[in-house]
Amino acid sequence: MATKSGKYWVTWANSNALNSNSISDLDSTFQPKINAFIKALKDAGATVTVSTTKRSPKRAYLFHWSWKISQGKCKPQDAKSMVGVDIDWDHGDAAKSKAGALEMVRGFGLAVPPRSVFPPSLSSNHIQGKAIDMTINWKNNLKVKKKDGTVMTIAYMQNVNGNSMLHKLGESYGVKKLKSDAPHWSYNGR
Ligand SMILES: [Zn+2]
């Protein structure tokens, strides 16, 4: 029997549909690129903290539809079903359906308008293991090797999205920055 949307699903996802923060869970084509990029950063004296690598598709599904229903962007009946996630989005009452979805949005800590105007993606590169969220820190200037062995000097910037030198460094390793999402890097920049 399906369980109605609400807090239950946050608890469920936190034991059945977890994110990984392990580099070994990344796609086998992306993983060596990330390893080489992070090694270069660490060799140069930077610290790298990885928060998310691979995202469970079930988690992405719950994120996406709870966001859309709670924000009134679709009706509960519009949500697709997913094998292995026996959720009922429709409480038979529009306000209750919205409230159930909102409990999930809050429980997952999803960013809603105005902080984020798009629903969490169903096709994020994280699901394929081709994206990573990480924080890179250093003081002043970092003298760091590109893939070809040449050394770049990169000044620290609080706003990582604006640090085009750092993006160039990543690109030399095949790791591209999504410039609208501070911790996010991927194989194609999305
Ligand atoms: Zn990300």
Automatic annotation (TrEMBL):
InterPro entries membership: Zn_M74/Hedgehog-like
Q: Which organism is it from?
A: Kangiella marina
Q: What is this protein called?
A: Peptidoglycan-binding domain-containing protein
